[in-house]
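Exercise: predict the fold of this chain.
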Amino acid sequence: MTSVTSLFAPVEADLDQLVENLKQLVGARNPILYAAAEHLFQAGGKRMRPAIVFLLSRAISTDGDISARHRRLAEITEMIHTASLFHDDVVDEADVRRGVETVNYRFGNRIAIQAGDFMFAQASWYLANLDNLQVVKLLSEVIKDFAEGEIQQGLSSFDTEVSLESYLEKSYYKTASLIANSAKAAGVLSDVSADLQEDLYQFGRGVGLAFQVVDDILDFTGTTDALGKPAGSDLKSGNLTAPVLFAMEEKPYLQVLIERELTEPGDLEEAIALIHNSQGIARSRALAESFSAQALQHLEKLPASPSKHALEELTDYIIKRMY
């Protein structure tokens, strides 16, 4: 399978520069925040979100080059994503992310929350300095969506009445909103047509939803080493994802286990076994493939280029992660 590193080859230099710039933008004046941010930036993330911004920006550029404002947009995108990770790990009481200790585990919840708040504030500051009101609105919406998604997830913990539609809405808020709106923002900064801006948005939405559904499948099929966190951790915390929702339609006893919040010895293991013995994972794979196919359709208007090809390959890569 093509590696994500090779997929991003057309923007490899852009991503290298981005990491160095982020360290300076985030922590130039605060050594504790710098240490917290550097710890996460160096934790081996794929930089998928800024890579998509770079690839789309180059794909829609008439000469294949990108402006300083596009670079800053990519940096803002990764700052917003990183800020959300600081907060997510505190809420989830996670000790490990990407195979390394989380910021809250290493520095404490107080520093992790403050680091997340600081990074959201920094992102907002640099966003305002792009001097483009439409882009400000798009990315501000993302920050609101993150909070909305986290609240929805918290309120629906172990709730067996959650619908697939609610799950997808939460998945949009927590994952797809940032990719979709930053993709559209790249088009706004390039002054492309409203129709093409919408295509960029829909591409990002499809990629984001496909990516989230695949992640939720891997929570049941991946290894702890590959996931960088314990397998089954979403279900254990009461986060009911697509494989669970589909499996409950076939396995009524799964609902019983979840409604008692997996509190009895062996409940988690039995629930995971029921999911594997259902069509939950297969149906979730079909759902992810449909979102990936939708995303691919929205690239059709872009001219042929190495960046467009990389974006097409990305939609395929996301699906192949499941196998």
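Check your answer against the key: Strands lie at 96-97, 100-101.
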